[in-house]
Amino acid sequence: MSKFKEVADRIKSSSYTVVFTGAGMSAESNIPTFRGRNGLWSKYNPMELATPEAFRRDPYKVWEWYKMRMEIILNAEPHEGYYIISKWEEKGYVKRVITQNVDGLHYRSGSRNILELHGNIFRGRCISCWYKVHFKEAPSEIPPRCPFCNSLIRPDVVWFGEPLDTETISKAYEEAARSDVFIVIGTSGVVYPAAELPIIAKQYGSTIIEINIEETPISVYADYVFRMKASEALSQIDKYID
Ligand SMILES: [Zn+2]
Q1: What string of pLDDT tens digits covers the 242 residues of the chain?
Q2: Which of 79, 106, 118, 134 is catalytic?
Q3: How far is the CA of 56 from the centre of ligand 1 (A)?
Q4: How much distance in Å is there from the Cα of 181 to the middle of ligand 1?
Q5: Catalytic site residue 118?
Q6: Ligand 1 center to residue 207 CA distance, Å?
Q7: What's the gap in Å between 125 CA and the centre of ligand 1?
Q8: CA–centroid distance, residue 60 to ligand 1 (Å)
């Protein structure tokens, strides 16, 4: 029996499939990644662009960078793999998508039960009050200001030196523990605490399926490994899902 069909059968008979995605998922939609040889952090200094200190020092510069990234993302399209995941959610197989990505491509492709561990680049939040704003396009005036208290609005993403939102991360742990199929796509499996999610899933008896073009620390304990692009592996599996 083909490995694709085996995995499809697991998904179809599962009661709680969770999908966990990282930078590799976005990279296939031509969204530049951060780490690695050609990653953004090899050209830009994250300490000048993605820390609370950098924002205090030069909010304009930080917003210029986020504006540029928002434009790149808006010009990109979710690849087929995203649509397959949202279709599986619609069919009731996928109960939750957990992502390390901030680009919102899962939303754009129709997934709805999403946990964004690192926030969303199209959301801003006031640094002084409760106000949050959703951007359909990059803000024309930067840095944007809060309509209520006139404080600066910052991108609602997790920066270096900042903790992840505790509610989001504990929900993610819960979902990993609850899953009976856990599909890990395009994550390097080295950034904590997100790297622990597949381990937790495994400890609770979930079937771990890894899709990644490169070997990762997850590969050694995954039950199925597809060493290929996400769009390719997901569409092969999808052939056996009705
Ligand atoms: Zn405010």
Answers
A1: 799 999 999 999 999 999 999 999 999 998 887 776 677 777 778 788 899 999 999 999 999 999 999 999 999 999 999 999 999 999 999 999 999 999 999 999 999 999 999 999 999 999 999 999 999 999 999 999 999 999 999 999 999 989 999 999 999 999 999 999 999 999 987 777 778 999 999 999 999 999 999 999 999 999 999 999 999 999 999 999 98
A2: 118
A3: 16
A4: 42
A5: yes
A6: 45
A7: 8
A8: 18
Which domains, ranges and CATH numbers included, belong to the chain?
1-30+77-118+164-242 (3.40.50.1220), 32-75+121-157 (3.30.1600.10)
Q: What is d(CA 79, CA 105) in angstroms, rounded to the nearest whole number?
A: 9
